């Protein structure tokens, strides 16, 4: 395996952003800005800084505006390709459609286009890839988990001893999935290209086989879900 080849990254940018209306009536949600820089641009700068070279971005709603804004990625020092979706294919469906562009050797990085993490921990995720590759039992996913935010107090999954589970167990901490993860291409092999599919059922199935690892990230992370939250973040990072 070519260890020097940069890990491909997929940015999810196909959502309609209903809760962000009216801001998203004329702009795709991932192009909304914090400190005059789009959410996608924050991600792209962090990826380039960490040595990522190839990025694929999916889009549906007003996708041409994303391509106009980011072009081929040269201004970030990246190579950006696009995976347009006539209508959004959900997370897993979008990933499956983009796999022929991503061309992963095994693992690849996926980041939600509508989260804001100004110190995006790409280096630690790249270290996790080396660890994943050395496991005798091939893991299918590695999730970045964060403390439960006010708007999502009950969390998503349990983290214990580096494994993520859908079931409570003694000593496990219930956390929120950040929308940032590393996936093995095999997680999506049963999906048909162009058919909508959600990610959570695939992850839960892999969890049942102890094939999902994870890490807790305590740095800044925000789900930019409402116009008010966007306004607060712009004020906080001024």
Which structural traits does this protein have?
238 residues; alpha/beta; Spore Coat Polysaccharide Biosynthesis Protein SpsA, Chain A; nine-stranded mixed beta sheet; two-stranded antiparallel sheet; 6 helices; 13 strands; globular
Could you give a short description of this structure?
With 238 residues, this protein is α/β, with parallel strands linked by helices. It has helices spanning 39-49, 63-70, 90-102, 122-134, 199-208, 227-236, and strands at 9-13, 33-34, 37-38, 54-59, 79-84, 107-112, 115-116, 141-146, 157-160, 163-165, 173-184, 212-216, 222-223. The chain has a single domain, classed as Spore Coat Polysaccharide Biosynthesis Protein SpsA, Chain A (Alpha-Beta Complex).
Fold-level CATH name: Spore Coat Polysaccharide Biosynthesis Protein SpsA, Chain A
Kindly report how far apart the N and C termini lie.
44 Å
Unreliable parts: none
Indicate the radius of gyration in whole angstroms: 17 Å
The CATH architecture term is Alpha-Beta Complex
Largest sheet: 9 strands, mixed
Instruction: Calculate the mean pLDDT score and round it.
Output: 94
Number of domains: 1
Portion of residues within helices = 25-40%
Number of strand segments:
13
User: Would you state the CATH class?
Assistant: Alpha Beta
Organism: Polynucleobacter hirudinilacicola
Protein name: Mannose-1-phosphate guanylyltransferase
Pfam family, one: NTP_transferase
Keywords: Nucleotidyltransferase, Transferase
